[in-house]
Amino acid sequence: MNNTRFHYLTLSFLHPLSPAKARELLAFFDNDIEALLDPARLSQVPNTRPDLPALLQSGQPRRQAEEELRFIEQRQLDCCCLADEDYPRRLAACPDAPLVLYRKGACNLDARRIVSIVGTRCLTAYGRQQTEKLVAGLAGACPDLLVVSGLASGIDGCAHRAALDNGLHTVGVLAHGLDQVYPAQHWRLAGEMVGQGALLSEFPHGTPPLAVNFVQRNRIVAGLCDACIVIESAEKGGSLITARLARDYDREVFALPGRNIDPCSRGCNWLIKKQIAALFETADDLLREMNWDLSRPRKASQPSLFPTLEPSLAELLALMKGGQDYNLEELMALREQSRQKKGESPAKNNIGELLGQMMQLELAGAVVSLSGGRYRLA
User: Fold this and answer.
1) Residue 181's pLDDT band (boundaries 50, 70, 90)?
2) What is the percent of the chain where pLDDT is above 90?
3) CA separation, residue 100 to residues 7, 13, 80, 116 (Å)
4) With bands split at pLDDT 50, 70 and 90, how would you rate the model's confidence at 327?
5) Listing from the earlier edge strand, what are the strands of the sheet with 326-327?
6) Domain edge (last residue) among 61, 77, 93
7) Is residue 93 included in any domain, yes or no?
8) Do residue 203 and residue 142 come from a single domain?
């Protein structure tokens, strides 16, 4: 028997003790978990609840830990505790990280890039379309991406399905034990996720999907990721809780905007309005904000545009260097220098004409317009 795992399992069954308080007690005992589980020594800790030593003395937490270990072995599940090297490093940095994680399926929870995608259970056609579009775009740029969600109906299930369809690993964080699937209609989806990701829970087997458990599991969804993405949400709901938790954990938070008359967009709009989340519309927005777009292999777009552009526009585009910004005056100067090198006569400087040409290039997707009247190659 792995003594460390058994001790952490025992500690997790001290139900009056929250994970955050358990970590405080571990620090008090210099991470000596055996000392913490000694009822006599625990009772000497200042301000300790009197029912904790008594519960340990009864032996009930140890019996529950033994039963859970048998279940893990019978079902061939994985179990890692906070002291293990394979405990997810992002989650371990959260002060209220679970003491124990149960897992079904092989998946790297320390993947290079991880996003959590959450939203309403009552998704709209717009929400489904945007979720599928987002995941497909992210998969094209980051094939090693891990998608995390809560396996709930609506946006969660849509995100998991989109991840599977695009060849990504995906993890469902459950609000109950691994001996069941909730909602029941997701049992087939859950089975596919075990083969291409994992199911994850901090709850022992037999734990029902109580409402309070969903709120508790949201911190895992928030803590596992680099970026938390809210697709659709009402004014109140678990997605907003997850977003605020992610912000508290110093994760990046993004929300998809929608019309203010759509109930499922009001939560997202509120997150953006309160500056809890950054607005995003496409996968490119998120990739750019996360600095993940640099890893994406890109085809050179400038040469392919030349055949479809008027000669004057193609000539203007060829003067611009990648990664550098230009205002209209600088572009006019560059064009004149080019004409001088070719021995051509100076052209009449018409800033209005140049502005119109830059607008055409922007519409063609060749350049992007920046603040301050500046332009850059797309």
Assistant:
1) very high
2) 70
3) 10, 10, 6, 20
4) confident
5) 326-327, 374-377, 367-370
6) 77
7) no
8) yes
Which amino acid is present at 56?
L
| Residue 122 · residue 264 · CB < 8 Å | yes
Confidence of residue 345 (pLDDT cuts 50, 70, 90): low
Looking at the predicted structure, is the pLDDT value of residue 73 above 90?
yes
- If asked whether residues 155 and 255 sit together in one domain, one would say yes
Number of domains in the chain: 3
Which region among 34-48, 81-95, 172-186, 319-333 has the lowest average model confidence (pLDDT)?
319-333
Residue 196, pLDDT score: 95
Q: Is residue 92 part of a domain?
A: no
Cα separations (Å) of 270 from 16, 264, 266? 35, 11, 6
CATH number at residue 234: 3.40.50.450
Distance CA 80, CA 65 (A): 13
pLDDT (tens digit per residue) in 131-153: 999 999 999 999 999 999 999 99
Last residue of a domain, one of 235, 262, 295: 295
Q: Quick one: tokens of 37?
A: 């589980």
Nearest to 155 by CA among 248, 242, 213: 242
Residues 326 and 285 in one domain: no
**Exposure of 4 in the CB half-sphere (CA atoms within 13 A):** 10
- Look at the block and give the residue holding tokens 């800033």: 351
Question: Which structural domain, as residue segments, surrounds residue 305?
Answer: 301-377
285 and 236 in one domain?
yes
Helix, strand or coil for residue 104?
Answer: strand
157 φ/ψ sector (left φ>0, alpha ψ -120 to 50, else beta): alpha
Task: Say yes or no: 352 and 274 in one domain.
Answer: no
User: Rounded to whole angstroms, how far apart are CA atoms 23 and 358?
Assistant: 59
Round to whole Å and give the CA distance between 140 and 135: 9
As a whole number, mean pLDDT of residues 105-113 equals 94
Whether 201 maps to a domain, the answer reads: yes
